[in-house]
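thought: fold this chain, then report.
action: predict
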Amino acid sequence: MTPTDFRKLALSFPETAERAHMNHPDFRVAGKIFATLSYPNKECAMVKITPVEQEMLVRAEPSVFSPVAGAWGRKGCTSVNLKAAKRATMRRALAAAWQLAAPESLSRQLPAEAAAVSAEAPRGRTGKALRKRVRGASKS
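observation:
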């Protein structure tokens, strides 16, 4: 997958806008970033998913996905090696990230199966609730 392919996929989701953040392109829905491109380099991207979805993607395709370093990675920010990524896998990862960031009313426009990283992956609001529980548990 090329950066251009990633950009086209990200922009294919409803009400997605491309902006820039810290000198690299990002993709937002309702003002919330769900993916970035060219960070830390031109061959990489990032998707913001739940920690559970991240764990599943990293286990399934370690040559494509890896957690971002530090606290952002523990919260689900996941680096993507674009050269190793396949379109179908990338579409599912972007869909999960978009659905997590989108308002609930907009999120319903995306078929649930499009956002599923796997059958066991939490989606939509469930993923947000899980992220809050994981965040709270890591503070204790």
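thought: worth noting. Residues 31 and 56 are 27 Å apart (CA to CA).
final: tokens above.
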